[in-house]
Amino acid sequence: MPLAAFRGVGKTFPNGVTALDGLDFSVEPGEFLSLLGPSGCGKSTALRLLADLLEPTAGRIDRHESAVRNIGFVFQEPTLLPWATVAANVSLPLRLRPAPGVDSRHRVDEALALVGLDEFRHAYPRELSGGMKMRVSIARALVTRPQLLLMDEPFAALDEITRFKLNDDLLALWRKLDCTVVFVTHSVFESVYLSTRILMFTPRPGRVAAEFKIDAPEPRAGRFRTSPEYGAQCREVSAALAQVMKQDTGEG
Q1: Residue 63 CB partners (closer than 8 Å, separation 6+)
Q2: Alpha carbon of 204 to those of 20, 26, 248: distances in Å?
Q3: Could you tell me if 134 and 155 are in contact, meaning their C-beta atoms sit under 8 angstroms apart?
Q4: Would you kindly state where each structural domain of the chain is located, as residue ranges?
Q5: Model's pTM, two decimal places?
Q6: Integer-rounded Cα radius of gyration of the chain
Q7: Counting C-beta atoms within 10 Å of the first and last residue's C-beta, which end of the chain has fewer, N or C?
């Protein structure tokens, strides 16, 4: 049973902009699903609808109970509290929604260890690099042990070396935690490297134009980026994206 299913979903904002129209897709348990498309095509809107942060104006979203109860969200910016330590930032979801019997200190220690920041628990955001701030943001999303992890272009502002490292770390986390990830990106190369499945969105209003299943050996590592298989799949997805963009402009 899917964790969530979009059925003819549309979203029009009060200013009249229609971000999504007739969007249909499902999120399957345990997969790493990327939503790929150009900026402004409604990918982030779809993610916020999935998180129940927005309501659709058409269609419906069917959610499995477990997906409703346990979602982690990583935004484009780390959005850390500048006056709080790393540990205090990570513990924020547990303080906002305390649960009986939960050892908050243990959960924070566990989340920081998962992202490799256990030695920085007493540091402040101003003392961290951009990549480390994003790791804190990921740890904050993981501290509730989510079954569904939603990520909205979390690495877009980082340099390529840091981005590659965090891609590898994210895959390791996904395997270790056995969770489901929905990842928004406009990078063909990132989506092919990370995903088990890619949904390509049309330009606004967004809907699914194509779907790709990425068949790659596990665990993936840096050598996959230089393999003929990776190059071939990137070319296939790039060609499809170019065709979608061409159709939108009326060419071809």
Answers
A1: 3, 4, 52
A2: 7, 20, 9
A3: yes
A4: 4-70+146-248, 82-145
A5: 0.93
A6: 18
A7: C
